[in-house]
Amino acid sequence: MEPKQYGIGDVVEMKKPHPCGTNAWKIIRLGADIRIKCTGCQHSVMIPRRDFEKKMKKMLERAEAGE
């Protein structure tokens, strides 16, 4: 299985929606843990990379190279 490619600023869709109703999250930190921010209410959550890879459904949009 190939590693998933994502970076800071990418917007991803998670399997379960946030309680605010939005299902899109922006990646704001990468490392052993990944911090994502809800695009609806701006709430941020830090989760382990392993859990993030299990819960991520698909990539919605890539960040621009200049960011």
Keywords for this structure?
67 residues, mainly beta, five-stranded antiparallel β-sheet
Question: What does it look like?
Answer:
- The chain is mostly beta strands.
- The chain has one domain (11-60).
- Helix content is 10%, strand content 40%.
- It has 1 helix and 5 strands.
- It has one helix spanning 49-55, and strands spanning 11-14, 24-29, 33-38, 44-48, 56-61.
- Strands 4-3-2-1-5 form a 5-stranded antiparallel sheet.
- The longest helix has 7 residues, at 49-55.
- The relative contact order is 0.29.
Quick gist of this model?
The chain has 67 residues and is mainly beta. The chain has one helix spanning 49-55, and strands at residues 11-14, 24-29, 33-38, 44-48, 56-61.
Average pLDDT reading? 88
> How many helical elements?
1
Oligomeric state of the chains in view: single chain
* Low-confidence runs of at least 5 consecutive residues: none
- Tally of structural domains: 1
Gap between N and C termini, in Å? 29 Å
Main sheet summary: 5 strands, antiparallel
Coarse shape: globular
Strand arrangement within the widest β-sheet reads 4-3-2-1-5
Give Rg in angstroms: 11 Å
SS-based structural class?
Answer: mainly beta
Order of helices and strands: EEEEHE
Helix content range: 10-25%
Q: How many individual β-strands?
A: 5
Report the portion of residues in β strands: 35-45%
Topology:
Blueprint lengths: L10 E4 L9 E6 L3 E6 L5 E5 H7 E6 L6
Antiparallel strand pairs: 1-2, 1-5, 2-3, 3-4
